[in-house]
Design goal:
The chain is of the alpha+beta class. The chain is about 45% helix and about 25% strand.
């Protein structure tokens, strides 16, 4: 064995020590990598599970690898159940899945793919799918993002149904602006006139008339002053052919009662006019046409009525309208004098009579209160010697069903003095009236929803917000009294917040109602609506004497519930029966009011939390959690529905309401996101830094904001040309995004933004210049503090943006300040260390 010298042994020991140090350093680096990977995985899982959409990962064989919380809640399947059943079991139609897979293999992705999926309970739901094939861990997988669009599909189908009802209506429906230019027409209008939709759109309605000035000269002024115009009109087809129509035109008003458009319901009465003419010209042909006409036709002998009216006039009664108003029995007496000589088959069918004799014998049964008012006008027409008369009326069939009719009668030649032969024609317009009522109800519901929506998003106290809601209920649902209570969970008491109608006070015996007491307390306790059109005798309406005294007929009350939480009760009384429409409208706004109450209560709670957070930093996490889970998610969902409603909305006034709601929702989401970001950054003492090129970071921020810059009518100049290496964290991009966004919001009049940089040795100096109004000296430091910002008219913000920027700059050991722009405006200067 060769003996080593002392020097050789020392060198070997030093070599071993060096190798040992390298191994220890390598082990330390490995631990850091593992820790970074663990942190990255935790962040991924947090983002994955917090995503507001369903996210799933599966292999190409359909085995599910992962699914986030939203996807599991959407379907009802847990992750283990997903992994057990595979993707195929979640499709309602397996063939639909095969088509999807084929498209994915061909293109590598699909976008906005609509599918029917199954939940765990077997029910189906509609989903919007975006999927990509990508590499994960060395194998190909599918990444799918899923949104439940079931409710959206229902809304779309309902809108389509209503649209088809209008489009398929047998009568022509036309809408014009206040100047008479056509903005909408259904298919029946096209069939009636022979014009295509493009030819009709923008055409002045007067161009369709034989007398083109009649609309401007008579109809539009008459509608604007009286609210409607009904009558016969001579019009012409595209080929010039003239023909008569029956037109019912009325004015459409906005929520302020201001006229916004005119709507007309058109019926081609060429055939009816032809029948009337034939009846007058040829008595022989009359009988055949009379019996087989599709229109209800009567022959009446009104000579007895004529003699009776002449007798009244001979007695010195000059004002017959006043006389009949004061003697309603005289009107009924005249009605009993109607002598129906003959009716045709259409009349028997229309009035559900078994025979002509049965109809004539039961004539008095067809009269309603409305009929007697109309008949009174007929008597006046007879007294004035008119030879024809026409009107609309509501009558009853012999089976008791109410129908809307258009009635017209003419005297046959030679009977002008005796009224012994009167020909009556009746057209059933019930369906047309129903369509008109449906259109009117839809407009009423839209205006009610819009007013309630605006009230609920108004920055006011809860009682004032709810007062506006009750006033809208009185206005649009014909309520005599409308009230809203909120539920005080601590005291288990309903507290009256708003009252409109005959009573506007909120004190008295009904101001505080214990849960389970009176009708309101029962509604709250049972969490079920109470509806009745028979208030007198309803045991739930305890104050029967008051109801009788005030003439109350109907009551409707709904519990205000958000998810499973009771927040209050909304109720209304009316002096007439409440229609199905009113009940549906009340039910629909009840949900909105409930959400509005909870939102306002949460908002007030947030304000209290904010004050408490100033004193106790330990409440910060709770506050942020409330904003994220209880506010941001519903605001995001509401904003999505607003986008959907805007896409299908054609009425500009209603679209303005939706845009107002949308702006407030976006402002709320921005405030929440800013607060969350500030909380996150404020709690950090240090951040990890890496080598970044600030030029690239700034360039990405500018690129992301370019669409916003263009929409604001501005331009942005990036004068940074060279690389800017620095030790920084990726959150540094937030600095430049925020500064440029502020310039867009506050300096639009300047029309441009300039970004440049300067090498200051150990620092990079980056400047963002705007050319707006600038910043006052007194505010140049305050704007970097929380909830401090320059007040700009028409500009909204959270007041946290620059506070976040200041914190990020601080975490980078940098500085930020603001200077005056010599050309006018402000210059934000950011100083970032290179190392």
């Amino acid at each position: 064995m060769i003996r080593k010298t002392k020097e050789q042994l020392i060198k070997e020991l030093e070599s071993l020590k060096e190798r040992l140090n390298k191994l220890e350093n390598a082990d330390l680096e490995q631990k850091k990598v593992i820790e970074a990977l663990n942190e990255s995985e935790a962040k991924y899982r947090l983002l994955f599970d917090a995503a507001p959409v369903g996210i799933g990962i599966a292999d190409l064989e359909g085995n599910i690898i992962d699914a986030n919380r939203n996807m599991q809640e959407m379907s009802g399947f847990s992750l283990d159940e997903y992994r057990a059943i595979g993707v195929g079991a979640t499709y309602a139609d397996s063939e639909e899945r095969m088509i999807l897979l084929k498209t994915l293999r061909e293109k590598g992705y699909v976008r906005d793919w609509k599918s029917r999926l199954k939940r765990r309970d077997g029910s189906e739901y509609h989903a919007l799918l975006n999927a990509d094939i990508m590499e994960l861990g060395g194998r190909k997988v599918l990444l799918g993002i899923i949104r439940d669009i079931t409710e959206r599909k229902k809304v779309e189908e309902k809108i389509m149904l209503l649209s088809e009802a209008v489009e398929g209506a047998p009568d022509g429906i036309i809408i014009v602006d206040l100047n008479g230019f056509i903005i909408y027409s259904n298919r029946a209008v096209e069939d009636i006139y022979g014009f295509s939709p493009d030819e009709l759109n923008g055409k002045h309605v007067g161009e369709l008339n034989v007398d083109p000035e009649f609309t401007r000269r008579v109809m539009i002024p008459d509608i604007k002053t009286k609210g409607r115009w009904i009558g016969e009109l001579k019009v012409k087809k595209k080929n010039g052919q003239e023909f008569p129509i029956w037109l019912t035109a009325s004015i459409v008003k906005d929520s302020n009662g201001e006229p916004i458009s005119l709507v007309g319901v058109i019926r081609d009465i060429t055939e009816a006019k032809h029948i009337e003419q034939v009846l007058l010209e040829n008595e022989e042909r009359y009988r055949s046409l009379f019996e087989n006409s599709p229109i209800s036709l009567w022959e009446e002998d009104s000579s007895g009525i004529k003699k009776y009216i002449d007798n009244l006039k001979s007695r010195g009664i000059k004002n017959l309208r006043t006389y009949f108003d004061n003697h309603p029995k005289e009107v009924a007496l005249c009605a009993s004098m109607i002598n129906v000589v003959d009716v045709n088959k259409a009349t028997i069918n229309l009035f559900r009579a078994k025979s002509k004799g049965a109809f004539i014998d039961g004539l008095e049964k067809i009269f309603t209160e409305t009929s007697y008012e109309t008949f009174k006008d007929e008597l006046i027409a007879i007294s004035e010697g008119k030879t024809s008369y026409e009107s609309e009326d509501v009558v009853k069939t012999l089976t008791g069903d109410k129908i809307h009719i258009r009635l017209k009668w003419v005297l046959t030649p030679g009977n002008e003095k005796t009224y012994s032969k009167r020909l009556v024609s009746i057209i059933d317009i019930t369906e047309r009236k129903r369509a008109e009522e449906e259109l009117n109800q839809r407009a009423q519901l839209a205006m009610l929803g819009a007013e309630v929506g605006i009230a609920l998003t108004h920055g006011d106290t809860l009682p004032r917000i709810l007062q506006r809601c009750t006033e809208s209920l009185v206005k649009y649902l014909d309520a005599t009294l409308a009230r809203i209570w909120t539920f005080n969970q601590t005291k288990s008491v309903l507290e009256l917040q708003a009252s409109a109608g005959i009573y506007t006070h909120i004190n008295g015996s009904h101001s505080r109602i214990p849960l389970g007491s009176f009708k309101i307390g029962f509604i709250a306790k049972e969490r079920k609506p109470h509806l009745t059109n028979s208030v007198i005798g309803d045991l739930r309406i305890h104050d029967q004497e008051w109801a009788k005294q005030e003439g109350m007929v109907a009551f409707a009350g709904y519990p205000l519930i958000v998810e499973d939480r009771l927040v209050g009760v909304v109720a209304m009384f009316a002096r007439q029966p409440v229609s199905d429409f009113a009940l549906k409208a009340l039910a629909s706004v009840a949900d909105s009011i409930a959400l509005g109450i909870e939102r306002k209560q949460v908002e007030e709670a947030m304000k209290r939390y904010a004050r408490e957070l100033e004193e106790s930093n330990s409440l910060k996490k709770l506050f942020i959690d409330i904003m994220h889970h209880d506010l941001l998610n519903p605001l995001t969902t509401a904003n999505g529905f607003i986008e959907l409603l805007k896409e299908n909305e054609t009425i500009s006034r209603k679209k303005t309401y939706l845009e107002t709601i949308e702006r407030n929702l976006v402002q709320g989401m921005e405030l929440i996101n800013s607060a969350m970001n500030f909380s996150k950054f404020e709690s950090l003492k240090s951040i990890e830094l890496e080598e970044l090129d600030l030029n690239m970071v700034i360039g990405e921020a500018i690129e992301n904001l370019t669409p916003l810059v263009e929409r604001a009518g501005m331009s942005i100049e990036n004068n940074i040309l060279d690389n800017m290496p620095a030790k920084a964290n990726k959150i540094i991009e937030e600095i430049f995004t925020n500064l440029i966004s502020n310039a867009i919001k506050h300096a639009q009049k300047g029309k441009r933004i300039v970004v440049d940089s300067k090498d200051e040795g150990n620092f990079w100096l980056i400047r963002v210049l705007d050319f707006g109004a600038g910043i006052k000296d007194a505010n140049k430091k305050l704007i970097f503090e929380r909830f401090q910002r320059e007040e700009k008219k028409g500009v909204k913000g959270s007041g946290l943006g620059l506070a976040i920027v200041g914190k990020i700059v601080e975490l980078h050991n940098g500085r930020i300040w603001v200077e005056d722009n010599p050309e006018g405006g402000a210059v934000f200067v950011v100083e970032i260390p290179k190392y």
